[in-house]
Amino acid sequence: MTAKEIIEKYETTNEFTTYEIPQIVWEKIPGMETIKKKIIDETGHWENVKGTIIRIGNRYFEVIWLEGKTEMQKNDYSIYISISEVYKTRVVTEEYLTKEEIECGGYEFV
Q1: What is the separation of C-alpha 102 from the centre of its chain, rounded to a whole number of angstroms?
Q2: Is 30 within 8 Å of 2 (Cβ atoms)?
Q3: pLDDT tens profile 9-23
Q4: How much of the chain, in percent, has pLDDT values that exceed 70?
Q5: Strands of 18-110, DSSP E
Q6: How far apart are CA 78 and CA 16, in angstroms?
Q7: CB count, 10 Å around CB of 103?
Q8: CB neighbours (10 Å) of residue 8?
Q9: On the chain, which terminus has fewer CB atoms closer than 10 Å, C or N?
């Protein structure tokens, strides 16, 4: 599967097979970059819901899949076999630290 095929499939049907999702999540596909893997929900008994953010050109997509929690549970790509377009945002938070925490942590005063 190529990055162009991912875009075409997303724009036409947005239906991906259970063997295409692991390719997108794990393989190095020319023209596609894996940006981030994150746990969305870890409350499941046997698996975590994970999201993988990929970039193709200037567009970002999130693939949702299930990661087995133990070596006895396999990753599951059959439940979440679609991809959603996502948008890059920058979130700014405020924290209050002591002077010592700032000096040790490489933070800057604002």
Answers
A1: 31
A2: yes
A3: 999 999 888 889 889
A4: 92
A5: 32-41, 47-56, 59-68, 83-86
A6: 10
A7: 10
A8: 11
A9: C
